[in-house]
Amino acid sequence: MAAGSWLPLRGWVIFGAAIYVHQYVLIASAALMVLAVRNWVLAIIGLASYMAIIFAHEMGHAAIARYLGYEVTAIRVGLLHGRCEYEHPDSALDASLVSWGGVLAQFLIAALVFGVASVVSGSLSDYFGPIVIFLGYINIVIAAMNLTPWAPFDGYLAWRIFPIMLDKIRGEIVVRRTIKRDSKRR
User: Fold this and answer.
1) Per-residue pLDDT at 130
2) Is residue 38 part of a domain?
3) How many structural domains compose the chain?
4) What is the dihedral of CA 95, 96, 97, 103, to 10 degrees?
5) Which pLDDT score is estimated for 1?
6) Does 123 have pLDDT greater than 70?
7) Is 90 exceeded by the pLDDT of residue 23?
8) Centroid of chain to Cα 6
């Protein structure tokens, strides 16, 4: 992450983790308000929706890490990306599952937004449009980009789940065959 300060959101603790926002988020927010003086409501909605994507993504990592029994120590929201800090996973499978948590949270939010958008009409739709664009369409694009199989993207660890599961299935097959063969010998 870029140099600068992380500002704690005092009193915000989720999954046992402190929440931090990078100072550049605040600077960009202030700059956007100045630039969008004519339509600041839409600017606020757009920026909040974009930050919600990053926050939800990191919350997805945190939720899976906690579900697997790991301590989550911090969730950091930056201007371009975030970071979920949790104790080192015990296995490659756990690391892969935690990596999937972020993009699955994004896809869940996109599905919810598209569902709500299908029933919203009237004057609310004027302000809901930017939310659909950010939390729906842009959210899906960001999630897909994050699944690229190269570091530092989540896909680097996430896609490893398939060979790990294949090895696990092969091992179980070998064990079952061995047990079956040994039971026939008796």
Assistant:
1) 81
2) yes
3) 1
4) 120
5) 45
6) no
7) yes
8) 19
The residue behind tokens 């339509």 is 39
- Distance, in Å, from the CA atom of 32 to the CA atom of 27, rounded to the nearest integer, reads 9
Report whether 18 contacts 99 (CB < 8 A).
no
Range(s) of the domain holding residue 162: 6-185
At residue 31 the predicted structure's pLDDT band, cuts being 50, 70 and 90, is confident
Which residues are CB-neighbours of 54 under 8 A, at least 6 positions away? 77, 78, 81, 82
Q: Is the peptide bond before 8 cis (omega within 30 degrees of 0)?
A: no
Q: In the β-sheet with 6-14, what is the strand arrangement from edge to edge?
A: 6-14, 17-22, 72-77, 82-86
What is the reported pLDDT for 124?
64
Q: 122 — alpha (psi -120 to 50), left (phi > 0) or beta?
A: left
